């Protein structure tokens, strides 16, 4: 295994250990692409390397993508295996990005493609992850062509250390994006239930994941890293529309359950909330 922690390392040092057939196909990639960090693993069955790139997403926020390419020995006659990870995207969104990259890779079969794939994801990430999807328990089913209509998002937060500031920030985001719903506290349970345009829901998620909304144990500002998307789906006819965004506290589970039932969300409550008490 050859580990490259400094991208300024002489290319000759890299190429000396790379099989000639693979060298011809990745040389341009190494010389052109700006890479923050790369781990190159020379293996008997090919080459693996990991790349981190920062991509501008909705609201001009930076999304850090971690891409792992595994090139077989007969690359580019055979497609690379690609893995996509990001702390700022859901598992479903990462899968969407991977699928789109593989689709693009098929268009470049038999020719060097990694550099083109990196450029493609930098240019098209917005289009890939803004596609509408219904997400429950992070299992997503794409529902293309349904940008219109009202959507609903249920989030679970592990904690709020700077509660007053956090609550104020959530209220501001909801107001700015014209979202209605509830920020709900019941014991240690913290839930955010939002309704609004699909695009506004997506923008809220990005803000929630990328902004420094809380503080860590030392009091330093930090991003929300322990949020879970419990459900994201289109509002159905039986669901009641919230008229405003409110912050509410409940002393018992029954009170919280009644809030969901009043909004026609009994199934949503029974599917996700009781398990949070375990």
Automatic annotation (TrEMBL):
Protein name in the entry: RWD domain-containing protein 3
InterPro entries named in the record: RWD_dom, RWDD3, UBQ-conjugating_enzyme/RWD
Localization: Cytoplasm; Nucleus
PROSITE patterns referenced in this protein's UniProt entry, alphabetically: RWD
Signal peptide: none
Keywords: Cytoplasm, Nucleus
Domain RWD: 21-128
Any one cellular-component term (Gene Ontology): nucleus
Annotated source species: Cyanistes caeruleus (Eurasian blue tit)
Any GO BP annotation: positive regulation of protein sumoylation
Lineage top rank: taxon: Eukaryota
């Amino acid at each position: 295994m050859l580990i490259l922690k400094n991208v300024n390392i002489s290319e000759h040092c890299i190429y000396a250990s790379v099989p000639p057939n693979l060298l011809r196909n990745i040389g341009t990639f190494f010389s052109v692409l700006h890479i923050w960090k790369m781990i190159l693993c020379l293996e008997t069955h090919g080459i693996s390397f990991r790349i981190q790139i920062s991509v501008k997403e909705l609201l001009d926020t930076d999304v850090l993508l971690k891409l792992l390419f595994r090139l077989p020995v007969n690359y580019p006659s055979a497609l690379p295996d690609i893995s996509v990870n990001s702390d700022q995207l859901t598992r479903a969104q990462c899968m969407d990005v991977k699928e789109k990259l593989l689709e693009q890779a098929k268009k470049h079969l038999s020719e060097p493609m990694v550099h083109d794939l990196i450029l493609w994801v930098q240019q098209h990430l917005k289009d890939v992850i803004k596609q509408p999807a219904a997400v429950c328990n992070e299992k997503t089913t794409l529902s293309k062509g349904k940008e219109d209509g009202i959507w609903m998002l249920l989030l679970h937060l592990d904690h709020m250390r700077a509660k007053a500031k956090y609550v104020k920030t959530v209220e501001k985001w909801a107001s700015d994006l014209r979202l209605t719903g509830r920020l709900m506290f019941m014991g240690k349970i913290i839930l955010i239930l939002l309704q609004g345009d699909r695009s506004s829901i997506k923008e809220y998620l990005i803000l929630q994941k990328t902004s420094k909304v809380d503080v860590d144990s030392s009091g330093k500002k930090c991003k929300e890293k322990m949020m879970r998307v419990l459900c994201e789906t289109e509002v159905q006819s039986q669901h009641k529309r919230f008229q405003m965004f409110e912050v509410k506290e409940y002393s018992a589970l029954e009170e919280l359950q009644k809030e969901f039932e009043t909004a026609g969300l009994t199934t949503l409550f029974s599917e996700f909330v009781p398990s949070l008490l375990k």
